[in-house]
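Weekly puzzle thread! Below is a chain. First person to post its structure in token form gets bragging rights.
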Amino acid sequence: MKKPAPVYLLVGPEEGEKREFVEQILQSYQDQSSEEAENHRFYAGQTPVSEVVSLLRNGALFSSYKFVQIYNIEELKKPEQQELAEYLTKPDPSATIFLLTSEYRSPAAINKKVPKAQRKTFFELFENKKRQWLLSYFRRAEIDIEDEAVEMLLDLVENNTLEMKNAADKLILYYGAGRRLNADDIEVFIYHSKEENVFSLFHRISRRDLPGALEVLHKITLSGQSNGVQIFGGLLWQFRRLLKLSRMLERNFAPDEAFRSIPLLGKRNQNNYMEACRNFSTADIEKIIALIADFDGRAREQRGEVEALLLDYFIYTILHKKSRPQRRLLGTLAK
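Winning reply:
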């Protein structure tokens, strides 16, 4: 039986194709083997690399082969990068490790230990390819979707086929086959589904609802679907759009004209942004964007309770009118 390579380095933002690549290798092994291999998944910052290496070095408990996946390797600290690089110098023959990052570059210490043939980059799809992918996916589910609804959905999900598939699957389950979806249907699903997300968090923030924003934030973090970096990324995207709207309104553009230019689709979505413009000045929004960059950098260095405290403190800072971020406190949280 031909075994897979002992290591694969998979970089780039296209998570859907990346996952398919991993699953194909796992399935290929399974098709050739009479036993099922062990499969372990880890995230940088959550499990010490020493434990992962120990798992790789030691024999599998229930199988003669094991697969290990480590996500977000760009977040590994230097000592952990070196420890992993040492393992890659002489990897265990009874294991395959997948090293994954959504960035285009990986840590140099790791990159140089992986043979070129086992390094693969998954590039973000072009905009027209994303549209085609979504249209085809809905068509297979016997659902028609209008162009404006496609644009709105692409605005609301991360730019990779894995996130697009997850969002599409939820819409398919919610509306069922035989439906023609428009932008209003997308909006109804987003704001009436029971799941809290970075968009419902922004809605609470736009109303300056501190208790509500903290409640939504805690539901998101407890669900485990988004970490601090992803939350800050989603908020940054929305506040940048809000800044465009605020500046256009200051230049006396009509709201509808500004909505088309940005673009902002869906009546409720537009109303949320208009409410945010009433509650935050252009200068406020610019300061919030700068704060997001600051807090995002700190969140990338933290996990667990400290990350949760950073998120809470960020929400409190932007919604409490008299509050300003205390650098001494931020420094303490980052330690």
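Puzzle host: Confirmed. Bonus trivia for everyone else. The longest helix spans residues 228-250.
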